[in-house]
Amino acid sequence: MKAVIPAAGFGTRLLPATKSQPKEMLPVYDKPTIQYVMEEAIASGIDDILIVTGRNKRSIEDHFDKSYELEYSLQKSGKDRVLKQVRKITDLADVCYVRQKDMNGLGDAILCAQKHIEDEPFAVLLGDSITRSKIPLTKQLIDVFNQKNKSAIAIREVSCDRVSRHGIVDAVSIDDEIYKINSLVEKPDADSAPSNLAIVGRYFLTPDIFDKIKETEPGFNGEVQLTDALSKLDEVYGVKFDGDVFNIENRLEWLMSSINFAMYDEEFKDDLINYMKTFMD
Q1: DSSP letters spanning 15-77
Q2: From 99, 105, 146, 239, which residue has the greatest number of CB atoms within 10 Å?
Q3: Which residues in the chain land under pLDDT 50?
Q4: Which residues share a beta bridge with 4?
Q5: C-alpha dihedral over 168, 169, 175, 177, to 10 degrees?
Q6: pLDDT of residue 111
Q7: What does each C-alpha distance from 275 to 31, 64, 112, 264, 279 come to in angstroms?
């Protein structure tokens, strides 16, 4: 199976940290954000990954490439544990890259992958969004696709003050956590939104989505929105997600994500808690 990871955006809400560093490469605790995303794809049974990049994103390619000098230095210094971690990154999956030449929205970024995907169903995982659950979220979407043979997207409930930050769906529950989606709208005002069910940033799509993207006019922010293209498909199913979602979209959420992951590290957890307590006096 194949996956597409869009990672071409400017990351303006994280400036100046993202002036020369892609937001997808910002570390969440001890790994770049995009590495968590790739690991989710691999845990879902995907081994062929296309990353859609843009200008000033070369460090993404370097991260997943082999570093002979670094490996030699680590081996010579006897740092076997770290060497093993570095080599594991290189061996994660078959990774290809294509550039989105102009920032024309998520729909346009997905369209850049058409030649690589050809006529196969494929996963899309946003490169600045980390999910955590017992069963990887992308695997849950694949399971629903295998049942319905139709595109499946991840959704979850959000508070009213966050509705305008997301694509929102109008959907009806048909089987436990599976929803039949009637319509989708990109970042509506809370007052006009059809629900509070937001698209999470994980998709498993049929290849006819490419034709629908080509038919889609620029929408929100003057960009070609994947949400608008999805609304043109005959059937789309939503999978309600109850795990953790970390969107690396601003400084506060990025910082909270790092703290959350650090709390799962038994080596540093207690020291981190004690340090944070010093700010509570």
Answers
A1: TTTTSSS-GGGSEETTEEHHHHHHHHHHHTT--EEEEEE-TT-HHHHHHHS--HHHHHHHHHT
A2: 105
A3: none
A4: 50, 124
A5: -10
A6: 94
A7: 22, 33, 46, 16, 8
